C-alpha cells in the first residue's frame, strides 16, 4: 500500500489533476474515503484482479477502490466496477492492444440486471450522456485504472490518433421494464435476479435515426445499412458489434412477434458487403479478401460478407428514453473479445 | 496541514533503466528486425535490413502474428540475443 504526501489539500488537488486524472478534477483518495468504499465489498483489498498492461502492474481491489474514490463513485457501484475490471483484465479482452491502439477504442461497460436500479444507474433518457453519477463514475473508474495503474498514457503508450469522448467514460444500464423483451443478463444465462457486466472494446455510439418504420423488416434494414458502413473496423475484420435499441424501436420488434435471435439472424443476413463494395474499404487487404472467400465458400458470394462473425456476435440490448426513434450502433475493436461476468 | 492520500498507481515502482550506448559501427552486429505487420511495414523494414546487411550486420528478420497482438515468446527469444532491434510504431 503506497501513499503520497502533500503540503496541503490544494497542492494535492492540483497534483492529482495534472498527473493522475483524465483532465478533470478528482476526489482525493484519502485513507478514510478508500476504507469506506472498500467496506462495500467482502473482497480482500489486497486480492489481485489481474496484471494490467502496458505497465505490467498487478491490479488489486484496493487500487480499483482508490481510483473509484477519485472518479466520485457513489455508494453501491464498487461491485460493478470490480466486475468490469475482471472482464477487462481477461487475456481474451487483449487490453494491451486496446490500450495502445491508434484506433479510438474505448471500453464500453453494459450493466444488465436489478442491481442497476438499486445503485441508481440510468437506463433511460441520455443513457450514454451526461447526468447520471453511477453510469459516469463506473466508466470513469475503468479508464482511471487503465491510465494510473495500467500506464495507458495518451501520446506515450496510448497511441489513439484522435481518441474519443467515450474514453473518458462509457457505461450504460439496460432497461429492465420492457414488456416482452428478454434482458441481456437473461440471454447470457445469468441466474434469476443476477446482474451482469459486459465489457466491449468499442467505438463511441453511432446514431440510427428512423422515425418512419413501423415494421421490423424496414427498421432493421436501416440498421443493417448502418452496420455495413465501410469505415469501421468491422467491415473488413468482422468480430462483434453492439446494437442498443431505443424502447420505441424495440416495441416495433416486440409487437410484431420478433425476438432477439430473429433480430440477430436478420441483421447477420443483411448487414453484408459484396466484394465489389468491400474492395473500396480503406482497410481492405489480403486478409479481408481471405475472409470474404471463406464466407463465399459457404454461401452465395453475391450476397457478400457480414460485418460480424456470426449472429450471436451482435450484442442487443434496450436502453434510452420512452419516446424517440433513435437507436445506437456501437462498432468494435475486432482484436478484442467482449467479456461477460456476473456481479459477485 | 499535511495531506496523506493513496497512490493511485498501485504497486507502480519505477526504476531507472540505463540507455545502451550507441555502437560506433554496425559491422559484425546482430540486428533483429520485428515486422509489426502494419501496412507496408515489411517493405520498409526489409529494405532497411538489406542496407544494414550491406554494412556488415547479420540480420534476424521476425514478424508478429498481428500488430494488435503481443509479441510471441519464441519471437522474443530470437530478438533478445541481438545487439540492436528495429521495429515500427503505429501505422
How is this structure best described in words?
The complex is a heterodimer of chains A (344) and B (91). Chain A is α+β, with helices and mostly antiparallel strands and 344 residues long. Helices cover 36% and strands 17% of the residues of chain A. In chain A, strands 5-4-6-13 form a 4-stranded mixed beta sheet. In chain A, helix 9 crosses helix 12 (260-270). Chain B has helices spanning 41-54, 73-80; strands at 3-6, 30-35, 58-63, 84-87. Chain B has a 3-stranded parallel beta sheet, sandwiched between helices. Chain B is an alpha/beta fold and 91 residues long. In chain B, helix 1 (41-54) links the parallel strand 2 (30-35) and strand 3. The mean pLDDT of chain B is 91. The chains are: A alpha+beta (344), B alpha/beta (91). The A-B interface holds A 1-9, 11-12, 16, 20, 28-31, 34, 53, 55, 57-60, 62-63, 66-67, 69-70, 94, 96-97, 101-102, 144, 148-149, 151, 159, 285, 335 and B 1-12, 39, 66, 68-70, 89-91.
Give the SSE map:
The complex is a heterodimer of chains A (344) and B (91).
Chain A: E1 3-6, H1 9-20, H2 31-38, E2 48-52, E3 57-60, H3 61-71, H4 78-88, H5 95-100, E4 106-112, H6 115-118, H7 133-148, E5 171-173, H8 184-187, E6 196-202, E7 206-209, H9 216-227, H10 234-237, E8 241-245, H11 247-255, H12 260-270, E9 272-273, H13 275-278, H14 286-296, E10 305-306, E11 314-318, E12 326-331, E13 339-342
Parallel strand pairs in A: 4-5, 8-11
Antiparallel strand pairs in A: 2-3, 4-6, 6-13, 7-12, 8-12, 9-10
Chain B: E1 3-6, E2 30-35, H1 41-54, E3 58-63, H2 73-80, E4 84-87
Parallel strand pairs in B: 2-3, 2-4
- What is the molecular shape of chain A? globular
In N-to-C order, the SSE pattern of chain A is: EHHEEHHHEHHEHEEHHEHHEHHEEEE
The oligomeric status of these chains comes to heterodimer
Low-confidence region ranges of chain A = none
Q: β content of chain A, as a range?
A: 15-25%
Order of helices and strands of chain B: EEHEHE
Which two chains have the most extensive interface, and how many residues on each? Answer: A-B, 42 and 20 residues
Which class best fits the helix and strand makeup of chain B?
A: alpha/beta
**What is the count of helical runs of chain A?**
14
Query: How large, in whole angstroms, is the Cα Rg of chain B?
Result: 18 Å
Query: Segments of chain B where pLDDT lies below 50 for 5+ residues?
Result: none
Task: Estimate the mean pLDDT confidence of chain B.
Answer: 91
| Distance between the amino and carboxyl termini of chain A | 24 Å
Strand order of the largest sheet of chain B: 3-2-4
Structural category of chain A is: alpha+beta
Q: What portion of the residues of chain B fall into strands of 2 or more residues?
A: 15-25%
Could you give the distance between the termini of chain B? Answer: 50 Å
Amino acid at each position: 500500500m503506497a501513499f503520497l504526501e502533500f503540503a496541503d489539500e490544494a497542492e494535492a488537488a492540483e497534483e492529482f489533476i495534472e498527473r493522475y486524472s483524465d483532465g478533470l478534477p478528482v476526489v482525493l483518495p484519502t485513507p478514510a474515503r478508500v476504507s469506506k468504499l472498500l467496506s462495500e465489498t467482502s473482497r480482500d483489498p489486497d486480492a489481485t484482479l489481474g496484471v494490467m498492461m502496458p505497465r505490467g502492474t498487478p491490479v488489486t481491489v484496493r487500487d480499483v477502490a482508490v481510483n473509484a474514490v477519485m472518479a466520485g463513485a457513489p455508494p453501491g457501484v464498487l461491485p460493478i466496477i470490480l466486475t468490469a475490471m475482471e472482464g477487462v483484465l481477461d487475456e481474451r479482452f487483449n487490453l494491451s492492444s486496446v490500450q495502445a491502439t491508434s484506433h479510438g477504442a474505448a471500453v464500453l461497460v453494459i450493466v444488465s440486471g436489478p442491481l442497476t436500479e438499486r445503485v441508481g444507474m440510468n437506463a433511460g433518457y441520455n443513457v450514454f450522456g451526461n447526468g447520471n453519477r453511477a453510469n459516469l463514475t463506473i466508466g470513469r473508474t475503468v479508464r482511471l485504472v487503465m491510465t494510473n495503474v495500467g500506464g495507458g498514457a495518451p501520446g506515450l503508450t496510448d497511441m489513439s490518433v484522435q481518441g474519443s469522448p467515450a474514453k473518458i467514460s462509457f457505461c450504460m444500464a439496460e432497461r429492465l421494464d420492457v414488456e416482452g423483451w428478454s434482458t441481456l443478463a437473461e440471454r447470457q444465462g445469468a441466474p434469476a435476479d443476477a446482474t451482469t457486466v459486459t465489457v466491449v472494446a468499442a467505438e463511441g455510439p453511432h446514431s440510427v435515426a428512423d422515425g418512419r418504420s413501423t415494421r421490423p423488416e424496414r427498421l432493421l434494414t436501416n440498421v443493417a445499412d448502418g452496420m455495413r458502413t465501410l469505415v469501421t473496423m468491422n467491415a473488413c475484420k468482422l468480430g462483434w458489434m453492439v446494437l442498443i435499441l431505443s424502447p420505441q424501436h424495440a416495441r416495433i420488434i416486440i409487437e410484431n412477434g420478433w425476438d432477439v435471435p430473429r433480430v440477430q439472424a436478420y441483421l447477420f443476413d443483411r448487414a453484408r458487403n459484396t466484394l465489389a463494395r468491400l474492395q473500396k474499404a480503406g482497410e481492405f487487404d489480403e486478409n479481408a479478401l481471405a475472409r470474404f472467400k471463406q464466407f463465399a465458400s459457404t454461401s452465395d458470394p453475391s450476397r457478400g460478407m457480414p460485418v460480424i462473425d456470426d449472429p450471436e456476435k451482435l450484442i442487443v440490448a434496450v436502453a434510452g428514453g420512452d419516446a424517440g426513434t433513435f437507436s445506437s450502433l456501437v462498432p468494435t475493436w475486432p482484436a478484442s473479445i467482449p467479456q461477460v461476468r456476473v456481479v459477485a | 496541514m499535511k495531506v496523506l492520500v493513496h497512490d493511485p498507481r498501485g504497486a507502480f515502482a519505477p526504476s531507472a533503466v540505463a540507455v545502451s550506448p550507441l555502437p560506433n559501427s554496425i559491422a559484425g552486429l546482430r540486428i533483429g528486425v520485428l515486422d509489426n505487420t502494419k501496412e507496408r511495414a515489411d517493405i520498409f523494414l526489409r529494405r532497411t535490413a538489406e542496407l544494414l546487411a550491406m554494412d556488415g550486420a547479420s540480420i534476424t528478420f521476425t514478424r508478429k502474428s498481428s500488430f494488435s497482438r503481443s509479441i510471441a515468446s519464441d519471437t522474443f527469444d530470437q530478438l533478445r540475443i541481438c545487439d540492436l532491434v528495429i521495429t515500427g510504431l503505429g501505422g
